[in-house]
Amino acid sequence: MKATAKDKHISLTPILHPWIQQLLHDKDLLAETVKQENSPVNIQSVLPFRENIAEYQTIFERYGLKHKIYFARKANKCLTFAKVAAAAGEGVDTASLKEMQQCLEAGISGDHLILTAAIKNIPLLELAVQHHVTIIIDNMDEYESLDSIVRANEVPATISIRVGGFLMEDEKIPTRFGFSLTEAYRILTEQIKDHPFLAFNGLHFHLNGYSIDQRAAAIVQCIDLIDKLAAEGISCQQLDIGGGYLVNYLERKEEWITFHQELKRAVLGQRSALTYQNDPLGMTLINGQLYGEPTVYPYHNEQAKGIFLEQILTSQAVPYDKPIHELIQARNLTLCIEPGRSLLDQAGITVARIVFRKQDTEGNLLVGLEMNRTQMKSSSADFLLDPIHITHQSTEQQEAVSGYLVGGYCLEQEFLLKRKIQFATYPQVGDLIVFPNTAGYMMHFFESQAHQFALASNVFCNENLHMDKHDGD
C-alpha cells in the first residue's frame, strides 16, 4: 500500500541511562572502541547493575524481610556482573557447569550460589555438592542422581524443591518444570525428611510470563505447603519465587500503544508496512481477520523492577486476609528472587559498524551491519527500541530516510530488526549503529559463530569513560 499522510514513522524512544548518554556524545571514543575491538562490541557498565540491586534491597528492607537476590547469570555471560552481585552481599543463580565453575574460580563461595540448571548431569551435581551449592531439584531422576552421589561419598548436600502446577481461578498454570505440590509433600515427608545426607532448606518456583496475580497465588499455595510440612516436623527456611521482573525500556507509553495500533492496521492493509514484508510479529491473519497479539516483550511497563516486586508483596493473600509480606515474615522465611533482565536494565549497549547500503528487489533500503542477528536476539519477535545512528556527517538540510538493518548471515531472513527504522540522514559506510539496553538476554543468550564469525567483544566502561576488557567469559 502506498504511504499516505497518516502513515508517518512510529518512534519507540528508548530510556537512556546517563552513562549511555555521556558515551553517545563522545563519537570519537565510540569509533575508537569499535576499531580496537572490532564490530560488534558490547559496551557495559556496572553502575546501573548496582543501582538495580539496591532498588530491590530497598523493597525488602521496607517490609522487614530477610532476603537473597540471586543474579540469573544466564541473562549475561560476563563474570563481572556475578562478582558485583556477590560483593553486594547477594548471590548468583547458575544454570550450567561452566557458569558455576567460573563463579567458584572467581572466588564466589558456594553458599552464595544456587544451581537451577534445566539439565543437571553427574559432573555438575558433583561440583555443586563439593562446594556446598544449594541444588534446586526439579524431578525424580535428578533426585536419584544426587542421592547416589551423596550416599556413595557420604557427604552432605543442601536442596530446595522446585514446585509448579499452581491453581489460578481453578485453572492449572501450565509448566514443564517442577513437582506438583502434592508430589513435593510426598517426596519431602517420605524420602527427604530422614535422609542422612540431604538437607532441605526451602521451596522454589519460577513462573513464565509477568502476572503479579499468578505469583501471589503461587506464593500462597507454597505457604500452605510450608505449613503442612511444619506440622510434620519439616522446617522450611526460604521461599524462592524466581525471576521475571518487568523492565521498562521506553520513555513514552503513547508510542508503545500507537505502535501496536499501527502494526495491526498495517497487517490488515490499512496503512504502509511497519515491518519487513509486513511481518505480523506473531499475529495471524486469516480471511481478513487478525488473531492473537504480537509475541513481543512488553517494552513499556509502569510496574517495573522494584514496583513489580512490591506489588507482589502487598497483594492480599486469600484466604488469609493479610498481605503476602506478612505471611512471609510471620514464618521467618528468607525470600529469594532470581532477577536477570531487570538487574541488567541499562547496563549495556551493542555497537556495530555499517558496511553497506543497498536496495532489495522491492526497493527497500537495506543497511548492512558488521554483526549477525544472533548477537542481538531474544525470544521476543522483535527488539522494539529505536537504535541510534552515530555519524560524523551533518544532518542539517538532509532528509530522513527509512530502511532495514541486516546482518552477515547468508539467509533471506537475516534481519537484525524486522521493524523499519528511520535515519535522520542517509547512512554512510563506517557510521555506527547503537542498540540500547541490550545487556539483559539480548547480546549473549542466542549468540552463535556460524560462518565462523567471531563472537562480539565485551568491554566495561567506567565512570571516566575508560574501557576495560571483560575479565573472562
From TrEMBL:
Pfam family for this entry, one: Orn_Arg_deC_N
CDD domains cross-referenced by the UniProt entry: PLPDE_III_Y4yA_like (cd06842)
UniProt superkingdom: Bacteria
Cofactor(s) the record lists: pyridoxal 5'-phosphate
Domain Orn/DAP/Arg decarboxylase 2 N-terminal as annotated: residue spans: 55-255
Keywords noted in UniProt: Pyridoxal phosphate
Protein name, as recorded: Y4yA family PLP-dependent enzyme
Species this chain originates from: Sphingobacterium bambusae
